[in-house]
Amino acid sequence: MEKILIVGATGDTGMRIVEILNNSQSFEPVAMIRKEEQKGVFEDMDVQWVLANLEENVDHALKGIDKVIFAAGSGGDTGEEKTIAVDQKGAIRVIDAAKKAKVKKFVMLSSMGADDPSQHKKLQVYLEAKQKADEHLMDSGIPYTILRPGALTDDLGFAKVKLAEKLDEQGEISRDDVAFLLVMSLADPLVKNKVIEALEGEEPIKSALIEASK
Questions:
Q1: What is the percentage of the chain residues whose pLDDT exceeds 90?
Q2: φ, ψ at 197 (rounded to 5°)
Q3: Domains of the chain: which residue ranges?
Q4: Which intervals hold domain NAD(P)-binding (predicted)?
């Protein structure tokens, strides 16, 4: 079983990722937490955890890890300093540690608009931070998938999506479906070294990912 480090495991999307991986036959989740008091929920799930802070050295968190899902995020409304600390510098710190640890794949949760932050004035700082982290990952030499979803909702996911390198529309997608897309992107042949945008749609997730991998 491959060990998967989930960065942002305590977040709404991160918890969904942990649950999916915990029921997988192929992957073993390792939840990265910032405070020791967060460990209880993962111990109750019988999930491994590691204590690490995105604003400090994280090299130890990558020991023995095969692949990474980065699902941490400031949310875009926590102030410029925090946004840059988490979404840009924190992500870059994990990417560099992952490279040292020779991880086999890095799956990044980014955001639609990260390709052109200046078009989204309200979220520009957040999207610029995401853009810089994405570019650092692409230049790192680590096999990667970068997922850029539309606005995230807490609606029930129906495992049907619309994927493309660039979608010419805005829209929403459930956290459930984003979590499944991130987990399925761990499979080595799928969407390797690809940036994909995602919205809710009509195509089943698996066939959409296979098509996006071509």
A1: 91
A2: -95, 150
A3: 2-212
A4: 8-189
Any idea what the Cα angle at residue 121 is, between residues 14 and 72, rounded to 5°? 15
How far apart CA 107 and CA 6 sit, in angstroms, is 10
Q: Look at the pTM and tell me if it is higher than 0.85.
A: yes
Structure tokens at 4: 């998967």
Supply 172's token pair: 């929403």
The mean pLDDT of 77-92, rounded to a whole number, is 88
Question: Across the strands, what pairs with 210?
Answer: none
Report the C-alpha gap between 148 and 182 in whole angstroms: 10
In the set 27, 42, 126, 180, the catalytic residue is: 126
Distances (CA, A) of 45 to 18, 19, 41, 48: 9, 8, 7, 9
Q: Which helix (H) or strand (E) holds 206?
A: helix 205-212
Of all residues in the chain, the percent with pLDDT exceeding 70 is 98
DSSP state of 87: I
Strand, helix or coil at 195?
strand
The answer to whether residue 144 is catalytic is no
Alpha-carbon span 98 to 104, nearest angstrom: 9
Check whether 48 has a pLDDT greater than 80. yes
Q: What is the mean pLDDT of residues 127-156?
A: 97
